[in-house]
Amino acid sequence: MNRAAAIARNRSGRQQPGGGVSRALNEWGTSSLDGRKFLIWALGYAAVGISLGLYMAASQNHGELVTHAHILLVGFVLSLVYGIIHKLWLEKPNRAIANTQFVLHQAAAVTVSVGLFLLYGGLATEATLSPILGVASAAVLLGMLLMLYLVVRFGSGKVVTESA
Ligand code: HEM
Ligand code: HEM
Fold first, then answer.
1. What CA dihedral angle connects 105, 108, 111 and 112, to 10 degrees?
2. Contact at 8 Å (CB) between 42 and 75?
3. Which pTM was predicted?
4. Ligand with smallest separation from the Cα of 68
5. Nearest to 88, CA basis, from 35, 144, 20, 146
6. pLDDT tens digits for 5-52?
7. For the segment 44-89, what is each residue's pLDDT rounded down to a tens digit?
């Protein structure tokens, strides 16, 4: 089967026996669904973070620089990296741990984003926000450590080959 036919057959949603392109493209197992969730959230952070960047540029007020940078780096970039890890290396990770890692990272990234926005916008005091940002930052680290565990414990290479 040529590559186009393999892709077309794959898109029909039926399970393909055997290996090759169709098998690799068919790996919409549980982990790829996690990858898709991460991708959707990543693009959401990108939209918010870039909007804030445009606002800073337009207003010539760069006061939210740190917020902008961390919405994009902790939110967009890390979520995208986690999504790519799920897609490329995690075949059948433990469901409970994978879900915990996803929820933990998103809760932490949203808290860091909102907390920094309030802090640099002068909308809440540092005394109020410091402990919240501290816990949320530790949660970002814990999310990273959980992903490290998932990769060490369940990671494998998913190889896309041309042969069908
Ligand atoms: C149209 C899109 C974007 C606009 C208009 C924009 C705008 C800005 C502005 C005005 C600053 C402040 C610069 C300064 O005061 O030194 C900034 C800083 C920054 N931006 Fe963006 N940005 C955009 C996209 C992105 C993206 C996609 C990323 C990362 C994935 C990013 C990461 C950063 C970082 C890390 C800084 C801090 C740089 C530093 O420490 O000096 N930006 N951006
Ligand atoms: C939640 C965990 C994190 C904490 C607690 C943290 C903390 C900080 C702090 C305190 C600064 C200095 C801000 C200032 O200039 O006053 C900073 C800057 C920076 N961080 Fe992070 N960071 C975290 C995650 C990350 C990640 C995951 C990335 C990249 C993927 C990143 C990239 C940067 C960059 C590029 C800057 C310079 C731009 C800026 O000043 O905002 N950080 N971070």
1. -100
2. yes
3. 0.85
4. 1
5. 35
6. 444 444 343 344 444 444 444 444 567 778 999 999 999 999 999 999
7. 999 999 999 999 999 999 999 999 999 999 999 999 999 999 999 9
Position in ligand 1 atom list of the atom nearest CA 56: 10
What digits encode the pLDDT tens for the residues 112-130? 999 999 999 999 999 999 9
Angle of helix 126-154 relative to helix 78-89, nearest 10 degrees, comes to 10
Q: Which residues pair with 90 in a beta bridge?
A: 155
Report the distance separating Cα 100 and Cα 149, nearest Å. 12
For ligand 1, the distance from its centroid to the CA atom of residue 108, given in whole angstroms, is 21
C-alpha of residue 151 to centroid of ligand 2, in Å: 24
Q: Where are the domains of the chain?
A: 29-154
- CA 49, CA 4: separation in Å to the nearest integer? 37
Q: Tell me the CA–centroid distance for residue 164 and ligand 2, in Å.
A: 46
Please name the residue that has the structure tokens 């949603």. 13
Q: Which of 67, 72, 77 to mutate to test the pocket of ligand 1 (most atoms within 8 A of CB)?
A: 72
Closest CA to 140 of 107, 116, 94, 98: 107
- 155 phi/psi in degrees, rounded to 5: -70, 140
